[in-house]
Amino acid sequence: MTRRPQLRILLALVAAGLAATAAAAPLATPADGGDATLLASGVLVAPEADHVFVTDRAGRVAAVGLDAGRPRWTGPARGRPLAVHGGGLWVLAPPERSGELLLLRLDPVSGAVVARLSATLPPDVLASPFAQAASRFEALARAEGEVLHLHWQAERWPLRGALLDDAGEEAASHDAGVLALDAQGGSLVALAGIESEPWRRPDLPDALRTAGLPGTQFVSADGDQVLTATPVTDDPIGLRWRWQLSRRDDGRALGNLLAHYPMAPFLLRGSTLVWREEPVVLVGPDGRVLASGLRLQAADLATGRLLWSVELADPVHRLPPPP
Description:
mainly beta, five-stranded antiparallel β-sheet, 1 helix
C-alpha cells in the first residue's frame, strides 16, 4: 500500500501555507537592518558576517555562529531582532499593553539589556513580536543617515466561531506608521506625513532580472545572488525543488541544492548557503508523520551537505481559525 498520495497532499497543504506566508512576508533591502544585513523577519546577519541574531524557539534573542550554528549567547531578552544601530542591537519586545511599542537596546556582544524605549501607537494595535491568533504586527528598521526609521504595519481580524450581531462580521482593520529612533539622544518619536513603506518582494521584476536565467528569480538578502527553482520528482517525497544559485551581475552558476520549497530568504557566504526554512510536514514510508518548525539552516553548496539547523520562533500563527 503506497502512502505517496497522502504525502503529496500534506506537501500541497504546507506549500499553500508557504504561498500565503510569502505573499505577506517579502524580503528586505540592503539598507534595512541598519549596520546589519536583514535576512528575514527576525533574522539579522551581524556586521562581522560571522554570526546572526535570531529569536530562538523559546522566544529569546540569541546570537548564533554561522560556522557551526552554535549559540554565542542567549537571552535574557525576549523579542524580535530589528537592527544593529548606534552600537546597539535593537529588539522589538513584548509590550505591557495594546497601544504601546517597546524597543530594547542590547549589547550585541553579550546580549545584556542596555536601555528601553517605548512609543505610543493606536490603542487597538498590539505590537507583539510573537504570533497572535487574531492580529499581526510587522516592523522594519531602515537606516536614514544617523537616524533609524522604524516602519510598522498592523493588521487585526475578527475571530470566527462566535455569535455575530445584526451588522454582520466585522471587517479586518489596518494601521501603519513610521517612528524615528535617535540612538544617541535616546528618543523614539512618531513621524507625521511619512507613509510606512512596504518591504521589497523577493521576486525580481522584469527590469531587474538577470539575463539568461529562466523562471522566477529570487534575490539574496545582500542583493548579490539570485535563486531559481525547478521542480523535480524525488521518491518517496514525490516533489522537491532544485535550487540554482547564480551571480546576479553576470548569471554565472554557483551551485545547486535540493529543497522542500521553491524559494526562501537566503544569503551566500563563500560556499555556505544560509536560509530560513519554512515548517515542513512529511509522512515516512512507515506512515510516521515527520514535522519540523521554522528553522535557520546552512549547507555547503559545493557538496549539498547540511551543516547545521537551528529552530526559530515562528512569527506566523499557522493553526486553523475556529469554524
